[in-house]
C-alpha cells in the first residue's frame, strides 16, 4: 500500500500541514452535525482523487496531495445533508474545470474548492440554501448520531438567513463556539482561529492573506453599519456568520491563486473583504465571500504585474 501511494501521489509537505490545521474543524463538524460529515467527505475525496488521477495518468504524472486539501475544504463548505451525488458533481466540476483544464496544480487560476462550491450553489440551490440541520450542543453531541435533525423553517437556517428573515442576530457566543446551523466547517469561529494558528505556526500560510480580507471586511462593514445602510449588519456578527472567516483563513491563502508580491497580497485581501460586504448588503445572495474570492482570482496576475511595474525603477529620460 505504501509503495502504491508513493507511485501514485506526489508528496507535498505544505499540503499535509494544511490538512493538519483542518483536523480540529473536521472533529468539530462531526460533533455539531454527526458522522455523516465523514461519509460526505470520504465520498467527495474518492471522486476528487479519481478525477485528478484520470487526467494526470494520461500525462504520466502523479496525483498531487493538494487534491486532498481541495476535497476537504469543499466538503467543509457544504451543509451536512448535502446529497452525495451533488457533492460528487461539484468536486468533479471543480477539479476538471478549475484545475486540470489549466494544466493541473500550480497553473490553475481559480481555487478548485470554491469553483466547485459556487457551481453547485447556483446549479442546485436548494440543498445549499434551504436544507439545514440543527447543530448539537452538550455531550456527546453529534458523536452519538449519524446526522442531526433537520430544521423545519427557513428562519431557523444559517445565521445570515436567520438575520435576513427575522432581522435578529444570534448571540455572539453561539457564533464563536459554533453550535449554530450552517455549513460544516464555517460555524465555529473558535475552531477556524485554531486552524489559522496551526497554519501560521507551521508557516504554511501568509498572515497578510489572512489579515487583509478581515481588515477590508470589517472596515467597509463598519462604514455601512454606522451609516445605517439598509441590510448592513453589525461587523462582528457578519464576520462570524457565513463562510467569510473560513475562506479568509483557508481559501485566500491558497499559494497558487493568490498574489506573490507583498503589496499585491494586501490589495487582493482588502478588495476581497470589500467585495464580500458589497454582495452581502446589496446583492441577491446572502453569502458573498465565495464570489468575492473567485472575482479576485481573475485579477491576481494584473495586480502582481501592476505592483512590479510601479516598483521597477525607470531611468529618467535625458533631453537631447
From TrEMBL:
Q: Does the keyword Phosphoprotein apply?
A: yes
Asked whether the keyword Phosphoprotein is assigned, the reply is yes
PANTHER family from the UniProt entry: ELECTRON TRANSPORT COMPLEX PROTEIN RNFD, NA(+)-TRANSLOCATING NADH-QUINONE REDUCTASE SUBUNIT B
**Per its UniProt entry, which superkingdom is the organism in?**
Bacteria
Keywords, A to Z? Flavoprotein, FMN, Membrane, Phosphoprotein, Translocase, Transmembrane, Transmembrane helix, Transport
What is the recorded name of this protein?
A: RnfABCDGE type electron transport complex subunit D
Residues that span the membrane, as ranges:
14-32, 38-55, 67-98, 176-200, 207-226, 232-253, 289-307
Task: Note the InterPro entries from the entry.
Answer: NqrB/RnfD (IPR004338), RnfD_bac (IPR011303)
Taken from the record, one Pfam family name reads NQR2_RnfD_RnfE
